[in-house]
């Protein structure tokens, strides 16, 4: 089966379409003045992943900006730095400022001419809607953790995706899921029976730091590409 044969393509948003690691690092540094000046980018991401995972697991219904604010406070506490409530709120509202990868908009513009495009995101409804306006794409459907009631890598999120698309006439074998994270998306999607594309952005932080340290992939993705641009080139070759 070639990429062009799928009826619909679903995307993780933050990390795959939006450069969340650069966004997180910049927002942490901007919110904290100079309190994190001596902390490396790698250490910031490691702290963020640990604290965010705990907060989301403890409160699966929490709005994502609130979760980010709590994560900020936990990061500062872990690093033994003072935390200011206004700074935590500033970090929590930073989602709309996170940069979009430079191949995203062009790739979406091409792919939406051939497929129904869907977002499956670990974020709240308001934040994803604000982000979608920057992606310049007419997405067919958007499914968020807020609506689903759980966060990826929960299998429930992918069962929800399959169930709702089947109600719209799109069968599971007609769906392709795209993500940079093997932990949050590729593995649970594959367990659910969805074909997958792993975007291995190894030349960015996302390629090396966004996998949980204890995670060892056990299922290979259906396709592997180094960027969305490379995926589009392969798609064109299939016509």
Layout of secondary structure:
Elements (H helix, E strand, L loop, with lengths): L7 E4 L8 H12 L9 H18 L5 H15 L6 H8 L11 H8 L4 E6 L3 H11 L5 E4 H4 L6 H13 L7 E5 L2 H11 L2 E5 L23 E3 L2 H10 L2
Parallel strand pairs: 1-2, 1-4, 2-3, 4-5, 5-6
Helix pairs in contact: 1-2, 1-4, 2-3, 3-4, 5-10
Describe this structure in words.
- The chain is of the alpha/beta class and 239 residues long.
- It folds into 2 domains: 3-19 and 100-237, Rossmann fold, CATH 3.40.50.1000; 20-97, Orthogonal Bundle (DNA polymerase, domain 1), CATH 1.10.150.
- It has 10 helices and 6 strands, in the order βαααααβαβααβαββα.
- The chain has helices at residues 20-31, 41-58, 64-78, 85-92, 104-111, 125-135, 145-148, 155-167, 182-192, 228-237, and strands at residues 8-11, 116-121, 141-144, 175-179, 195-199, 223-225.
- A 6-stranded parallel beta sheet has the order 3-2-1-4-5-6, sandwiched between helices.
CATH class of the largest domain, named: Alpha Beta
Helix content range of the residues, please? 40-55%
Question: So, the CATH homologous superfamily of the largest domain?
Answer: HAD superfamily/HAD-like
CATH overall fold name of the largest domain: Rossmann fold
Class of secondary structure makeup: alpha/beta
Give the radius of gyration.
18 Å
Helix and strand sequence: EHHHHHEHEHHEHEEH
CATH architecture of the largest domain: 3-Layer(aba) Sandwich
- Mean pLDDT value: 90
- Widest sheet: strand ordering: 3-2-1-4-5-6
Q: In what range is the share of β-strand residues? A: 5-15%
* Head-to-tail CA distance between termini: 12 Å
Count of distinct structural domains: 2
Number of helical segments?
10
Quick one: how many beta strands?
Answer: 6
State the shape. globular
